[in-house]
Amino acid sequence: MDTADAGQSVLARPLPREPFKGQKRPPCHRYAEVELVGACWLPHELKAPCPDVLYEHQDKCYSPAFSAKQPPSSLGQ
């Protein structure tokens, strides 16, 4: 007889099939970001199941990395 835990079932939030609009694209920041599905992702120490604000990939949790907006190169005077 299987004695596996019959606790709550958890729905995984898998990575999307393509990058989000505005999501950072490779090259990703070395050591801080990983490349998945053609975009940069920030890994978390949390393991699956992930909270709703994170995405799951191979039992690890990730959040999308977005490029910072460039500061203005000149000031309008």
How is the secondary structure organized here?
Layout: E1 34-36, E2 39-47, E3 55-57, E4 60-64
Region (Disordered): 1-25
Q: Report strand %.
A: 25-35%
| Number of discrete helical segments | 0
Question: Overall 3D geometry?
Answer: elongated
How does the major sheet shape up?
Answer: 4 strands, antiparallel
Side by side, the strands of the main sheet go: 1-2-4-3
Poorly predicted tracts of residues: 1-6
Average pLDDT over all residues: 83
Query: Class by helix and strand content?
Result: mainly beta
For the secondary structure, the number of strands is 4
The radius of gyration computed from the alpha-carbon positions, rounded to a whole number of angstroms, is 18 Å
**Through-space gap between termini:** 78 Å
Order of helices and strands: EEEE
Helicity, as a percent range: under 10%
Region (Disordered): 1-25
Summarize the structure.
With 77 residues, this protein is mainly β.
Q: What do you see in this structure?
A:
Residues 1-25 are annotated as: Disordered. The protein has 77 residues and is an all-beta fold. It has a domain at 21-67. It has no helices and 4 strands. It has a 4-stranded antiparallel sheet with strand order 1-2-4-3, with no helix packed on it. A hairpin with a 2-residue loop joins strand 1 and strand 2. It is elongated, with a radius of gyration of 18 Å. It starts with 33 loop residues before the first strand and ends in a 13-residue tail after the last strand. Residues 1-6 have low confidence and may be disordered.
